[in-house]
From TrEMBL:
Signal sequence, renumbered to the chain: none
A Pfam family annotated for this UniProt entry: PBP
Main location, first listed in the record: mitochondrion
Protein's name according to its UniProt entry: Large ribosomal subunit protein mL38
Family indicated by similarity: Belongs to the phosphatidylethanolamine-binding protein family. Mitochondrion-specific ribosomal protein mL38 subfamily.
Gene Ontology CC terms: mitochondrial inner membrane; mitochondrial large ribosomal subunit
Gene assigned in the entry: mrpl38
Localisation: Mitochondrion
Keywords noted in UniProt: Coiled coil, Mitochondrion, Ribonucleoprotein, Ribosomal protein, Transit peptide
Length: 341
């Protein structure tokens, strides 16, 4: 009766309260909120409430606190205040792909091409004979070319992630090296730069030979930097070589923004990473603010940050190629410090 009187009074005052004069509008919250099945077990569902004496007795505050912390850190299906108050760490954010776009060919087309090659190989009697007699020579150059066109860029990306290249040079970003960058130090050893191999500072004492496939009218920027070498600030780098506005693949015809400086890993600091990055340009870039004097052997003027350089020119440059090596101190480093720096 009391409820009916309350409803009648509310309906009489409906105009003043902004409530429509319709009895069907008055429904309880329980009706509006449709109940759904829980996604898992409910809290304390495993407790036998009829036999509370059977519950575990902690006997000490330390054991109780440990059990409470374990229960607090346990993942549950319902929402808790902790999920709303905790700040997201950097691991919760996915890195952004800043590299060149890639249009993968049709999977069906790839399968058909592979089947065609298999049929041709099975019909080749010479190939069958060489395979049976273990005299077949695998054309490694052709295998490498096929690898570079298919899985190679993704393998190089995984290697770069393993060595922390993206983490230290492009925080929260990465790129797949679509353009194969070939770097060779043409001295007595003809040392090549791959993806984390070891070279001595003596082998890398002079500027290397750079080659890559490029269209005739394309423009490129080449960078050599070391994220481990800075003597005063661990967040900074030293730029060892920077060439911009490279026409095609003629590095010698580009604008040398910072001339080549050999590696200088100081004694006792272990292996240092030296990273070659190839950027593709959309147009000619004005690098007037990035130029260093020639010669430039001031480490202060050589201080550099790859991410800052990329942000400055990100509208016209895109990372496309990657190669890197590791190096540690030898006698040539001491000579470089004494004669050049």
């Amino acid at each position: 009766m009391a409820l009916q009187r309350t409803v009648a009074r509310l309906m009489r005052l409906g105009t003043d309260l902004g409530v429509k004069n319709n009895a069907r509008q008055f429904t309880t919250a329980a009706v509006l909120c449709r109940r759904t099945a829980p996604l898992g077990s409910m809290p304390n569902e495993d407790i036998d409430w009829k036999n509370l004496d059977a519950l575990e007795k902690y006997c000490s505050y330390t054991r109780y606190l440990r059990a409470a912390e374990e229960a607090s850190n346990k993942d549950v299906w319902w929402n808790t205040y902790k999920k709303h108050t905790e700040q997201k760490s950097d691991e919760d954010f996915k890195p952004v792909d800043i590299g060149l776009p890639h249009c993968r060919p049709s999977r069906l087309k790839e399968v058909r091409e592979r089947r065609k090659v298999l049929k041709e190989n099975r019909k080749n009697p010479e190939l069958e004979r060489d395979s049976r007699l273990h005299t077949y020579r695998i054309p490694l150059d052709e295998v490498k070319q096929e690898w570079e066109k298919t899985n190679g860029p993704y393998h190089i990306r995984r290697l770069a992630e393993h060595y922390g290249i993206y983490r230290d040079l492009f925080p929260m970003a990465y790129f797949v090296p679509r353009v194969m960058l070939r770097v060779t130090y043409e001295n007595d050893s003809n040392a090549m730069v791959h993806y984390g191999n070891h070279l001595t500072p003596s082998q890398a004492s002079s500027a290397p030979h750079i080659s890559f496939e490029a269209e005739e009218n394309s423009l490129w920027t080449l960078l050599l930097t070391s994220p481990d070498e800075h003597l005063q600030d661990g967040e900074q780098e030293y730029v060892h070589w920077l060439v911009g506005n490279i026409p095609g693949n003629y590095v010698c015809s580009g604008d040398e923004i910072s001339h080549y400086m050999p590696p200088i890993p100081t004694k006792g600091t272990g292996f240092h990473r030296y990273v070659f990055i190839l950027f593709k340009q959309e147009a000619i870039v004005d690098f007037s603010r990035d130029f260093r004097p020639n010669p430039c052997y001031s480490l202060q003027q050589r201080s550099f940050k790859t991410m800052d350089f990329y942000r400055k020119h990100e509208d016209v440059i895109t990372p496309a190629g990657l190669a890197f090596f590791q190096s540690q101190w030898d006698n040539s480093v001491t000579s470089t410090f004494h004669t050049l720096l």
